[in-house]
Amino acid sequence: MAVISYREALRAAMREELKRDDKVVIMGEEVAQFNGAYKVTEGLLKEFGPKRIVDTPISEAGFIGLGIGASMLGIRPVMELMFWSFSYVAFDQIVNNAGNIRYMSGGLINCPIVIRGPGNGGTNVGATHSHTPEAILASHPGIKVVCPATPYDAKGLLKAAIRDNDPVYVMENTILYNDKGEVPEEDYIVPLGVADVKRIGTDLTIVAHGRAVITSLKAAEILEQEHGVSVEVVDLRSIRPLDEETILTSVRKTHRALLVEENKPFCGVDAQIAYLIQSKAFDELDAPIHRVSSIDAPQIYCKRMEDHQLPDVNRVVREALKVLA
Amino acid sequence: MAKPAVLTHPESLKRPAGPSEYAKDPVNAALSKAEKIALYTKMARIRHFEQRCIRIYQQGKIGGFLHLYVGQEAVAAGTISLLGKNDHLITGYRDHGHGLMVGMGMNECMAELTGRVTGCSQGKGGSMHYFAPDKNYWGGHGIVGGQAPLGTGLAYAVKYMGLKGSCLVYMGDGAVNQGAVHEAYNLASLWDLPVIFVVENNGYSMGTSQERSTAHPGCLAKRAEGYNMAWDVINGHDVYEVRAKTAIALKRAHEESKPTVLEIFTYRYFGHSMADPDKTYRDKEEIKEYRERKDPVLAFEQELLREKILTPELSQKINEEAMAEADKAAIFADESPDPTVADITKHIYWEEDNRGPKTTSRGTIIFE
């Protein structure tokens, strides 16, 4: 199996889907001539030409809305947002139009659009460019949201998203773009709504998504090495649809749960997960559920403090030990 | 109070109601007698459908908003009567007239208003959200101007697939100040998309007159120049003029794949919606003037009487049939069943409604 980066895995997913289906179009700011703001789409213009790889003006409400309209007629646009933070100027299109059109038309119209790009903090760019809107968007029925943490999942989830007939919003992470991992060269997809147990353990379940999975895996290693604790790490991969069974199965085994995410805590994804566990596995719990999220403030610019604001390995270890106490 | 609307509609009020100077335009001269009668019939059907809606609304059977098209019939009728199989359309929330023009039935339209499962959107959309994609009609959108990027995308798809077609994107005069509309203008012109933006200028964005809402260089359509787009202004009380000038824009879309902005001067006789008491921002004399002097349905009737295509008897028959059709639709809408509780969670996701071995979704997607 080839070892490639998260960025290359995303590119491979797009290249394979562009080849498989001539209705797939890549569209976004700087995706073509510039080769991608983060080089995710590097080389695609040369390989597929300007009809398939389309540079847009800085006009998110316009071009995202255009992609949604095109998808209604059968085009399968894969739209890049330079930052998911920029989705906020296209919110009406992303939520009201893409999320509601199938419902309001009584199932007559589908919207097979993919919107992808990084939705993360930790890059020292301040509050306006550091949003993690997966919880906000996943709270709207009609929308699907996935957050890959590894190159394997990035490729498999993006390919599934492109083939899916509903709007799927793929939230990547710029800090993970250079992370490498094993990725099959043959065709595969990671179905939406299937979590993955990234580490098997018996004493504590950590539920995480996105980069928080990587942080949690590092914390799990320390917990085992330094504290003799066996930690299971469940990677949600998909926020909506949600794999409830994998979460519950793990909690029924370990009887303790720590939820880790990069979101701010209020109304975060893990608020929903905590509710799920208490409603369906309350009697299995030997301790209260704890959460590790970003500190509840707009993203601070100062890099040293931003690193402190985000969930880090030390905080995850500390909080895990509280759950285990 | 002043009469601002007279100033907003210079083109339409200058001309006295009389023979249309566009009657002999090639697209109108090409119409057979039967086609002209059919066009008049469609306008009359819109009028009677909408007037029937008022009664049902007043009976408390229509919830939410109800934006009526009465007074604006010639806009949808004139433009849509020109469309071919690869021409698409999308509009805002004043969407009944367009629906009836593309061939939606009065029953499904009326039943949608009363929230019945027999409605065009199975009672899930309501007045503002009619859809008939099988007839190239993509709604019916509730947020002012939000449909403009979607329509531009439909035109993009038509062009991508190599088809000679277009998308007509309707909006009101209030929508021209929305950012999404300007972004759509830019993309349509930048990428040479076959879009026709139809600004149905009825003088008021809800209760705010054009003078109080919009800075413009003489007319709203002229803003197209800032995006290097062609534009025209049209008297929307004359269905022949609407057809003649829209045909030019359609040709531009089909032959050159270029966009156009058309501003069509029109007028609505009722409030912005039925929730608008219509007492504060315009006076009754103004409405009376339009109704009596500029009515697009009466004007076309007069036109066809002059052309000796229509007789008073035939006109009466057409109108009585349209009224009877609307009455029947009202009964249908009243007697049809509601959607069920189980229907609330259908039609949210294609992959969920069609789950099988090949679908790409698993897991829980609807939460209790």
Structure summary:
With 325 residues, chain A is of the alpha/beta class. Chain A contains eleven helices and 14 strands.
Could you characterize what this model shows?
The complex is a heterodimer of chains A (325) and B (368). Chain A is 38% helix and 18% strand. Chain A has 325 residues and is α/β, with parallel strands linked by helices. In chain A, strands 3-2-4-5-7-6-12 form a seven-stranded mixed β-sheet, with helices on both faces. In chain A, strands 9-11-10-13-14 form a five-stranded mixed β-sheet, with helices on both faces. In chain A, strand 13, helix 9 and strand 14 (290-292) form a beta-alpha-beta unit. In chain A, helix 7 (211-227) packs across helix 11 (313-324). Chain A is globular. Chain B has a six-stranded parallel β-sheet with strand order 2-1-3-4-8-7, with helices on both faces. Chain B has one domain: Thiamin diphosphate (ThDP)-binding fold, Pyr/PP domains (Rossmann fold, 3-Layer(aba) Sandwich), CATH 3.40.50.970. Chain B has 368 residues and is an alpha/beta fold. In chain B, helix 4 (33-58) packs antiparallel against helix 13, helix 4 (33-58) packs across helix 14 (312-335) and helix 5 (73-80) packs across helix 11 (239-256). Classes of the chains: A alpha/beta (325), B alpha/beta (368). At the A-B interface, helix 3, helix 4 and helix 6 of A face strand 2, helix 8, helix 9 and helix 15 of B.
